[in-house]
């Protein structure tokens, strides 16, 4: 049984704590110093820069800025190409880019926006204006990141819930002592097989199995030993059913029900006889039982499901046969 994991809210909270992180890409240190001065005294803004344009991509990837201030004219690298490269990088594609250029040129502005820049400022701008643009673009980016993270978190939570539900449904179908199908599951399976047998006009067999003199076993060896015995019986019955469609269920107490789809009486008798002898061969002492060991009486009923009959009718037939098996001396099969 896999463990049910619940969503961890700490992960979600961690990513909601964003800061404005500025990366300036400019080859001139004098510009770097000027921008640094403009942004100092603002506790919510982190300033970073890179003067070597060839290192811009790697630095940006590592830093994950909330906004890039991008110079256009730099030795060896065209700023326009750098913006293109950010847009092609999975981790930078959405980061806002503000072009910071000395040139107030409409064609350069158009080219910048065409490759994915978000803004264009002629340098050096007024301090207030630069701050306002940085905050505006960062805020938009951060809220998009938060929204994406919230969706991811929601999807993960929904998946966790769905997984937990599946586990709960599996648990709800199992008997807690023996781990085999419980009465609820038995009812579902029998109803489904009844419908299928009716549709396919195939015989459906049911074995009702009851451990003989089990009260005496409990009285002699105690309830813990009784529980262990029930587990062994359940394991043996499950082990010796060869077809995946057959279902062994704990019907209640020391009674087990076995549903055998597409099985006629002859086939069901073979399986019942194998089950009976395998339980006897467990050789669990039960001194006052007919053979001195734990044994099982089995009532067998077979029917081709039809509109006239019901699944409950099949149970009643198997019960009646079981009663006869008890009456006739136990440790036997009655069809
Ligand atoms: P018979 O051969 O006629 O079936 O006799 P029996 O003693 O098996 O039948 P009876 O119905 O009188 O007693 C069934 C016993 O099964 C009584 C109860 O203590 C025991 N039993 C039922 N469920 C459990 C269980 O979960 N654990 C244990 N240890 N015993 C159980
Ligand atoms: Mg330059
Ligand atoms: Mg009983
Ligand atoms: Mg019994």
UniProtKB/TrEMBL annotation:
Taxonomic source organism: Massilia psychrophila
Enzyme Commission number(s) of this protein: 2.7.7.65
Residues where 4-aspartylphosphate is found: 71
Residue ranges of domain Response regulatory in the record: 21-138
Top-level lineage group: Bacteria
Domain (GGDEF) ranges: 202-335
Keyword Hydrolase carried by entry: no
BP term (GO), one: phosphorelay signal transduction system
GO cellular component terms, semicolon-separated: plasma membrane
Record-linked Gene3D superfamilies: 3.30.70.270, 3.40.50.2300
Protein name in the entry: diguanylate cyclase
Entry annotated with the keyword Phosphoprotein: yes
Reaction it catalyzes: 2 GTP = 3',3'-c-di-GMP + 2 diphosphate
Coiled coil ranges: none
Upper taxonomic lineage: Bacteria, Pseudomonadati, Pseudomonadota, Betaproteobacteria, Burkholderiales
GO molecular function: diguanylate cyclase activity
Record's keyword terms, sorted: Phosphoprotein
NCBIfam families per the UniProt record, alphabetical: GGDEF
């Amino acid at each position: 049984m896999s463990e049910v994991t619940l969503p961890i809210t700490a992960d979600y909270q961690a990513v909601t704590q964003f800061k404005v992180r500025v990366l300036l890409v400019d080859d001139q240190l004098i510009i770097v110093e000027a921008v640094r001065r403009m942004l100092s005294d603002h506790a919510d803004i982190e300033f970073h820069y890179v003067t070597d344009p060839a290192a811009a991509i790697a630095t940006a990837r590592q830093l994950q800025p909330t906004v890039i201030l991008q110079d256009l004219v730099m030795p060896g690298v065209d700023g326009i190409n750098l913006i293109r490269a950010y847009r092609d990088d999975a981790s930078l594609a959405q980061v806002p880019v503000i072009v910071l250029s000395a040139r107030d040129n409409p064609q350069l502005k158009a080219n910048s926006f065409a490759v994915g820049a978000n803004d264009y400022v002629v340098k050096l701008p007024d301090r207030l204006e630069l701050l306002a643009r940085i905050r505006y673009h960062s805020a938009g980016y951060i809220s998009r990141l938060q929204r994406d993270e919230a969706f991811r978190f929601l999807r993960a939570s929904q998946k966790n819930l769905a997984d937990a539900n599946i586990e709960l449904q599996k648990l709800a179908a199992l008997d807690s002592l023996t781990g085999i199908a419980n009465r609820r599951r038995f009812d579902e399976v029998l109803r489904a097989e009844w419908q299928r047998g009716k549709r396919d006009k195939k015989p459906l067999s049911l074995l009702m199995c009851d451990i003989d003199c089990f009260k005496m076993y409990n009285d002699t060896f105690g309830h813990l030993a009784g529980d262990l015995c029930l587990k062994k019986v359940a394991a043996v019955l499950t082990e010796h059913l060869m077809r995946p469609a057959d279902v062994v269920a704990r019907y209640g107490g020391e009674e087990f029900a076995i549903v055998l789809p597409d099985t006629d009486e002859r086939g069901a008798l073979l399986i019942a006889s194998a089950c009976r002898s395998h339980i006897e061969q467990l050789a669990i002492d039960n001194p006052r039982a007919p053979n001195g060991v734990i044994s099982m009486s089995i009532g067998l009923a077979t029917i081709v499901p039809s509109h006239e009959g019901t699944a409950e009718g099949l149970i009643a037939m198997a019960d009646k046969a079981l009663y006869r098996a008890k009456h006739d001396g136990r440790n036997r099969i009655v069809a």
